[in-house]
Write the structure tokens for this entry.
Amino acid sequence: MTDIPGTTDTTGPTAPAGSQAGSRPQAPGAPGARRALRWGLAIMVLAACLPLAAQLTTPPASTLMWLASMPLCLAGAGVAGRGALHLAAARRAREEETQL
């Protein structure tokens, strides 16, 4: 809260809960699915770079990087796949709503 006249408090919500000004309505879970997809892709890219970075380090660290790269890449693929499936389900639900 501020004591200066003419200023407003920007820490509280400015729009009604569940609505975003200037955007189209989204199916529940769609923002979380996009976030999961982005995180999964980022994990995969970083895991794919580990073997390249391993060539620049000492032998114990390089072995650890090589061994960690494949499980991290698979974990990223799982997270990205989960996000993609949730996005597809949200898109189908939104299309079904518009057809009714």
